[in-house]
Every structure is written in C-alpha cells, then in structure tokens.
Amino acid sequence: MSTGTSRGTFAKASVRDAEVEGRTVLVRVDFNVPLDGDRVVDDTRIRAALPTIVLLRERGAKVVLISHLGRPKHREPELSMAPVAARLGELADAEVVLAPGVVGDDVRKVVAGASAEAIVLVENSRYEPGEKANDPGLARELAALADLYVNDAFGAAHRAHATTEGVARHLDAYAGLLLEREVRELTAVRDAPRRPLCVVLGGAKVTDKIGVLEAFLGIADELLIGGAMCFSFFRAQGIATGDSLVEEEGIALARDVLARAADSPCELRLPEDLVIGDRFSADAEHREHDGVAVPEGWMGLDIGPQTSEAFARVVKAAGTVFWNGPMGAFELAPFAAGTRAVAEAVAGAEGTTVVGGGDSAAALAAFGLADDVDWLSTGGGASLELMEGRELPGVEALRDA
To answer: Which residues contact 394 (CB under 8 A, 6 or more apart)?
Structure first.
C-alpha cells in the first residue's frame, strides 16, 4: 500500500496541528479485528493506527485508546480487548495497560496512574449499551478521561456512536492520520479522478451498492459489475438465473440503473460468461458456462474467463480504479479465478488504484496483493457512504480546519 502524498482535500482539523504535550488524548481507533481465542488473526487495523499513536507519544501526550470489538450482548469475556492489548504492545514496542472497563472510577484511576510512556487501552466500547445509542451521559464520561479527542477510526466513522460522535461534542476533536488519509484518498476518486475512471463493484446485494451505483453513473467512464449482484441485473432483463442467489429487492433497482446507464456516458458492463456449480460448496460439480442464462439446478458462482479477461483489460487501461466487492465466491477454490483476475489487474494497473475495504481487502490479502495497490481502505461501509456523497457523523463532528 502506497504511503505517498494523498491527493484529495480535507476540511477538518488534523492531529498534526493539535497541541498535545503533557495532555491526555482519547483516541478512537478501529481495533475490531478477528480473533482466534486469545490471538489476533489479522492485525492490519492495529498497524494502520500506529502512525497516529506514534505521533502523539513522540509529542509528549498520554495516549488512551478506545475501540469496539465484535457485537457483544453483555460483557462476553471472549470479546475483551486483552488479545488486542497484547498485540498492540508488540507492534508499538510499548507497555499497554488494559483498563478494567470503558468508563467509571476504576478506569479513571488507571488513566491517571499510567506512566507517560504507557499506552492505555480501555475495554470494548460496546460493553456499554450507551455506545451504539450515542448516549449523552456515556459521551460525557468518556470526555472526562482526557483533555482532547482524536478520531482515527475511519471504519466506524459512518456511525453516530458515543465514541465516534458524542464525545466530540465535549472535547476539542481532531482527525487522526489514518482517517484524514482515508477521506483524502476516497474523495479524490470521487471528485478529481484521473481519466478514465473505472469502478468495479461486486458482492451479493444491489441494495448495499445502489447509492454508489447511482453516484458513479454520473462520474465513472466504466462501471463493471460482478458478484451475485449481477443476477439482479440479469433478472431485470428477463434472463434466467437458475438457482443463483438473487436479491429480489434489487431487481427493480437494477432495472432503474440499466435505464439510467443507457442515457449516461458511463459504460455499464455485466458478465458475458460465468462459472456455474450445482451447489455452493468447494466440492461442487462446476464448469465454465458460455453465456449468462443459468440452467435450472445450477447457480452462478463466479464470472467466467472471457469476462475476467475483458474486465482486466478495462482495469489496466484506467487512469483511476475503484474496486469494492468480489466477483464471485472467492473463498471457494473452484470459484476464485474471477476475483483473482480482477485483483491481479488492479494490483498491476498503472493508474491510481483504490480498494474499498471489506471482502475486496480480504481477497487482496488472500492473493498476496495487499501491498500492490495505492490505497486499501480500512472501512467497507464507511468508504461506500463517503463515495455516495453522504456525510459521515464521525468526520462531521470534528472541528473545522
């Protein structure tokens, strides 16, 4: 992943400009990482937050970190931040003190008693029911832990939660280095792309991507659609889809997108061939299928080789590429080739390449290509909402530059 100069604009105050020496800084990070027992399986998000943490510590701040982890219903011990604290300590080469809760007297004592060299990590923010409800009382208690606030959790910036929006009402609030770079890189694709702009969208649901589809119809030069969402488009055209996954709610939306695309300078491309299987399984009977009308008893599970080649050719010729969503069931070996072909084309493209997190990021990692794109976003949902032109509460709550 490139660490060069970011390209877009950013209208919020940056942590670079904050006076932090001798002050306690509450930093919202996105440490929602996969765990295997007490081991962090993928530390990408922890590594992404390190530049902001290092900057603050070098400038003499006491750093207090807060993040959510999973979706606890109570205080499940398996969703404690303890494994994250251990891995962060290794990566930052620092003592990481895990507070016993999110707020309260015991947490305040830990923060007050921690040395200036230590990093304090409070417990899983979603242990507090007021987090997702953006409870004002919880926000005030969080603010009482620090002198100022930094949001570096782009992956959670589209949520108006107590740790992303509420607390920013009570402290001077700045953008962390990661959040700032995310907004710059993504808005540059939307607002000032090098031409031609190629947008590749996959995944299962048209309803998840309809805002991005509509936005890019007026911006992109090429819009390539793969993944299971293509079957809503085929059904909208009266093409048989067999047993393929079809989002019924997406058919009317797809029909509208096709109509709008016909009157748009953007060229919308759908698959022209498929890889089909008799069931969703790694050991399914499968074959390449010339055409897109899926026979009964079969399901489309990947774009075919002709489509892979055509999509790759468009991607490689683009001045800017934005990719979000796999082309098929890439987690199953027989149906991974289409996503791999697109991933390799994006990684090898000479233009600017930006990948919108989520399953696309997982695919790049699976194929060993995560370091070969210009920007790999840490926020799937947040990146899509930003691309749609929507305001992100966690960004809007920050002080203006």
So the answer is: 28, 151, 153, 154, 156, 157, 158, 159, 160, 164, 165, 168, 179
The percent helix, strand, coil of the chain (3-state, each to 5) is 40, 20, 40
Q: Is residue 4 part of a domain?
A: no
Asked if 333 and 280 sit in the same domain, the reply is yes
- The total number of structural domains that make up the chain: 2
Rg (CA), the chain: 22
How many CB atoms are located within 10 Å of the residue 259 CB? 11
Write down which residue in 152, 177, 202 finishes a domain: 177
Taking residue 25's Cβ as centre, other Cβ atoms within 10 Å add up to 27
Q: CA–CA separation, 117 vs 120, rounded Å? A: 10
Full-model pTM: 0.91
- Residue 399 maps to a domain: no
Contact 217, 261 (CB under 8 A): yes
Give domain status of residue 277, yes or no: yes
Q: How does 50-87 read in b/e, with b if 16+ C-beta sit within 10 Å?
A: bbbbebbbebebbbbbbbbbeebeeeeeebbbbbbbeb
pLDDT tens, residue by residue, 70-79? 999 989 999 9
Residues 205 and 170 in one domain: no
Please identify every residue annotated as catalytic.
45, 205, 358, 381
Place of tokens 């399901």: 299
pLDDT, tens digit (0-9, with 9 covering 90-100), for 177-234? 999 999 999 999 999 999 999 999 999 899 999 999 999 999 999 999 999 999 999 9
Q: At what angle do helices 337-348 and 358-366 cross, to 10 degrees?
A: 90
Contact of 211 with 188, CB cutoff 8 Å: no
CATH number where 383 lies? 3.40.50.1260
